[in-house]
Specification:
The structure holds two protein chains of two kinds. By secondary structure, chain A is α+β, with helices and mostly antiparallel strands. The longest helix of chain A has 94 residues. The radius of gyration of chain A is 62 Å and the shape is rod-shaped. Chain A starts with a helix and ends with a strand. The longest helix of chain B is centred in the last third of the chain and has 18 residues. At the A-B interface, helix 5 and helix 6 of A face helix 1 of B.
């Protein structure tokens, strides 16, 4: 699966959770709002019920006032109340949603109407009695029997009781709703906190998951790149199919190509060495043949050779010898990479002393500093020292000749130096001397083939080390080379 | 079944492809001052044809020794030697090997096939160690000894 897809999925999960959270919050808020609206409504109902109760009380008081005094002014609130009460009851019906409360309101209205009937009757009787005292007894009778016993007592008691019940019921519902409201607010809070934590965890988890996934694989690719830089052409294992895979595939193919090219190069090199070896080997046979023939001519014409001819014939073996030396040098040069050297315990002190014994004439002053003991390709190091010491001997006059070898540690390498006080090498030749068949001596010089330093350089460079020369004409030469510690 | 074979001690077969080496051997033999008969083959196949005879008529008498060069075209020394040692008629002939290789491996392969001696052809010259000297010494020591013996049967 592509990384972009995986990251998108991670984001989608987080966003979906967030959406669910929002939706839950929305529904909970709606619930809270409903409850709040209900409470507001309930308060309006109670207020309405209060108004109703007050208006009924006003009517009753006005009624009583009129009956006692006969003053029509008292009936003012009574008449207003007669219009207000049905409106309030109606309003109550609109506000309440409870059938019980509706029923109570209906009962209140019914009792009120009953009360009004008797009320009106008494008021009429009272007015009659005021206009004509003859009717006073009738009013008195009505007042005593009807009003006192039924209207005043039972009806208003019923109404009061119903209003009380109405209020109690409303308060009770309201209490329930308030509790529900509080609970839903609490639930909203809990759900919000839960989702917030869940989103944070999911976000962090998916981030960590992706980071770990990517960084682990990037690390393995970095390791591969490091391996490649060290010349170790491994492959990175990656069976995913995403953007990083194309990077790993490229790296793998690069590694493979490099590996192929390097081994191709090594093969070519080996072929070249083999070629040099075979060529130089085969060059020897004709030279040998020429030498033989010259010998036979000399043997057969022993007494007939003129002094001049003798001289010419003598030049031939000399030149043949030089050619042989060149071929041998070439063979040695080719052999460096051809043969696999073995590592041995090497005491460089002993090595250079033995070499000096063989190479350095007694007239020289030979010395060396404290040299290391190491586990290395002894024969090759020996060849390097041998060539450098021979070189020093060759270019230093024996009188007051000095050859000195020293060593210093440089990280994981040793830095050796071979110095002499001989004729030195001019700056312009410092590069040239390491090139094969380059010799600064004259061509007829038998001793110098120009291969020694080329061999030294090849050996040293194959070990990824370096060689340089510090010298100027007439002031001796110092060859400095590095060598791996193991 | 051992066959009675006539061999001539004065007869030498030189199997060598290099003209120079042939001359070299001839010159050394001359210095011995002994009568001899030298036959030359340029490779193993030619040598076998000579010994066995092209038309089924083998060489009579057979040479008592063969000077064999190792490195030859068509059939090299070792191959020739193997065939020689498997041939009842020819397996008793003494063989001296001339080679440029001083390698242990080659030496062992030849020893298994029973050779009487070696001449390692030197490739390098020193001013005081001439190549023809070693050929002379070799011929003097090994070949001279055999040539001076009386003809015999084996």
């Amino acid at each position: 699966m592509k990384l972009a897809t995986q990251i998108s999925i991670g984001f989608l999960i987080v966003i979906s959770i967030d959406l669910i959270d929002s939706y839950t919050n929305y529904t909970l808020t709606k619930e809270v709002n409903t409850n709040t609206a209900f409470l507001t409504n309930s308060e309006a109902i109670i207020r309405n019920s209060g108004s109703l109760s007050r208006t009924i009380a006003d009517i009753h008081n006005a009624f009583r006032g009129f009956l006692l005094t006969g003053d029509e002014a008292f009936l003012e609130p009574y008449n207003t109340g007669l219009n207000t009460i049905p409106a309030l009851i109606n309003h109550g019906h609109i506000l309440t949603a409870s059938p019980d409360q509706d029923r109570r309101l209906d009962s209140i209205l019914a009792f009120h109407k009953l009360w009004i009937n008797y009320g009106n009757l008494l008021i009429k009787a009272k007015r009659k009695a005021i206009r004509d005292p003859h009717f006073l007894p009738e009013y008195q009778r009505l007042f005593e029997t009807q009003f006192k016993k039924r209207v005043a007592k039972s009806y208003s008691d019923e109404i009061a009781s119903l209003l009380r019940t109405f209020d109690i019921s409303e308060y009770k519902t309201r209490e329930g709703r308030r509790k529900a409201l509080e609970a839903s607010i609490r639930r909203t809070e809990t759900v919000s906190v839960f989702f917030s934590i869940f989103i944070i965890i999911m976000g962090i988890a998916s981030a960590i998951f992706i980071v770990l996934k990517i960084s682990g694989r990037i690390a393995s690719m970095v390791k591969l790149a490091e391996n490649i830089s060290r010349g170790d052409f491994t492959q990175v294992k990656d069976d995913k199919r995403d953007e990083l895979s194309s990077l790993s595939i490229s790296l793998n193919s690069m590694s493979e190509k490099l590996s192929r090219n390097i081994s191709e190069l090594e093969k070519r090199n080996a072929e070249l060495n083999q070629f040099a070896y075979v060529v130089s080997h085969d060059l020897k046979a004709p030279v040998r043949g020429i030498y033989n023939v010259i010998q036979w001519i000399e043997e057969d014409l022993n007494n007939e050779i003129s002094p001049d001819m003798r001289k010419y014939l003598d030049i031939i073996p000399q030149r043949i010898k030089r050619m042989e030396d060149l071929i041998d040098g070439l063979l040695d040069y080719a052999r460096i990479s051809r043969e696999k050297p073995v590592k041995e315990e090497t005491d460089v002190n002993v090595m250079v002393e033995e070499l000096a014994e063989m190479i350095v004439p007694k007239a020289f002053e030979f010395s060396h500093g404290e040299l290391p003991k190491l586990w290395t390709e002894k024969l090759l190091l020996q060849q390097v020292f041998s060539n450098l010491i021979s070189n020093a001997v060759k270019y230093t006059p024996p009188e007051n000749g000095r050859i000195e070898i020293s060593c210093a540690e440089k990280g994981d390498q040793y830095e050796f130096s071979v110095s002499d006080n001989g004729q030195g090498i001019d700056q312009e030749y410092h590069e040239k001397i390491f090139v094969i068949f380059q010799t600064l001596r004259e061509k007829h010089d038998k001793e110098s083939t120009g291969i020694g330093l080329a061999i030294v350089k090849k050996i040293i460079e194959e070990r990824h080390c370096t060689i340089s020369v510090v010298s100027s004409a007439g002031k001796g030469a110092k060859f400095i080379f590095t060598w791996p510690k193991n | 079944m051992a066959k009675k074979l006539i061999m001539n001690n004065k007869r030498i077969l030189l199997v060598e492809d290099d003209e120079l080496d042939i001359i070299s051997v001839e010159r050394s033999l001359k210095k011995l001052d002994i009568a001899y008969e030298l036959f030359t083959a340029y490779n193993g196949i030619e040598a076998l044809e000579m010994l066995r005879g092209k038309g089924g008529q083998p060489m009579k008498p057979l040479p008592s020794l063969i000077l064999l060069d190792m490195n030859m075209p068509k059939m090299n020394g070792i191959e020739f030697l193997k065939i020689l040692r498997e041939d009842n008629m020819l397996k008793h002939i003494k063989v001296f090997v001339m080679t440029t290789s001083g390698e242990e491996q080659d030496r062992k392969a030849m020893e298994k096939l029973g050779v009487s001696g070696y001449l390692i052809k030197p490739l390098n010259f020193n001013n005081n160690n001439k190549r023809s000297d070693s050929m002379d010494a070799f011929v003097q020591f090994h070949i001279g000894k055999i040539l001076r013996q009386e003809s015999s049967f084996s």
